[in-house]
């Protein structure tokens, strides 16, 4: 009877994978004073300097009508916005052109620009960011500001160029 019960228990553990789970937990929750057999985690460095990207002529950008682009790669949507008044980090003759990652720093939903409020808002959990204050979080669930895209404006050609990312894009290292 005892032997049969023991056999049944072992069959259950083996078939359910519970033995592996239990073993895994034992490693995770080491007793105090016990040295944990830590496996080193390698975190590859992100691209330190993303390539510059031309975003077109400033003269074609209307106040309050954002232009979408992707930067520093195709998985990273961003918004280029002409605010119509000097803005923190802004480029151009009026220092009013700014750009931000569109990925909310809470859980990565794409924010949109509400021109009436002059704010960037996330439709998922309503976090709000202020493009006039460098993408600072105004309210909501996120814990960090929206990453600002560094811009450069060439006064001769009127071309705006994205030159870098200021902050951590959601889901990136
Ligand atoms: S994903 Fe934007 S507030 Fe949650």
TrEMBL record:
Which SUPFAM superfamilies did the record assign?
Answer: ISP domain (SSF50022)
Is the keyword Transferase assigned to this protein? no
- Which terms does the record give in the GO molecular function aspect? arsenate reductase (azurin) activity
Known EC number? 1.20.9.1
Domain of life of the organism in this record? Answer: Bacteria
Q: Which InterPro entries match?
A: AioB/IdrB_ssu, Rieske_2Fe-2S, Rieske_2Fe-2S_sf, Rieske_Fe-S_prot, TAT_signal
Gene3D superfamilies with a match to the protein in the record: Rieske [2Fe-2S] iron-sulphur domain (2.102.10.10)
Annotated PANTHER family: CYTOCHROME B-C1 COMPLEX SUBUNIT RIESKE, MITOCHONDRIAL
Q: Which NCBIfam families match?
A: arsenite_ox_S
Q: What is this protein called?
A: Arsenate reductase (Azurin) small subunit
């Amino acid at each position: 009877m005892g032997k049969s019960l023991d056999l049944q228990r072992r069959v259950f553990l083996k078939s359910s994978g519970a033995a592996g789970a239990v073993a895994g937990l034992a490693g995770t929750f080491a007793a105090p004073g016990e040295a944990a057999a830590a496996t080193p985690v390698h975190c590859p460095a992100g691209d330190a300097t993303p390539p510059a990207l031309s975003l077109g002529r400033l003269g074609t950008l209307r106040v309050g009508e954002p232009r979408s682009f992707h930067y520093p790669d195709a998985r990273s949507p961003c918004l280029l916005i002409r605010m119509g008044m000097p803005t923190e980090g802004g480029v151009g003759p009026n220092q009013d052109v700014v750009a931000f990652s569109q990925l909310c720093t809470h859980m990565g939903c794409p924010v949109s620009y509400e021109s009436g409020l002059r704010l960037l808002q996330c439709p998922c959990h309503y976090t709000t960011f202020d493009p006039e204050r460098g993408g600072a979080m105004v309210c909501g669930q996120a814990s960090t500001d929206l990453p600002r895209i560094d811009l450069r404006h060439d006064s001769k050609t009127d071309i705006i160029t994205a030159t870098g990312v200021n902050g951590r894009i959601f889901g990136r290292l």
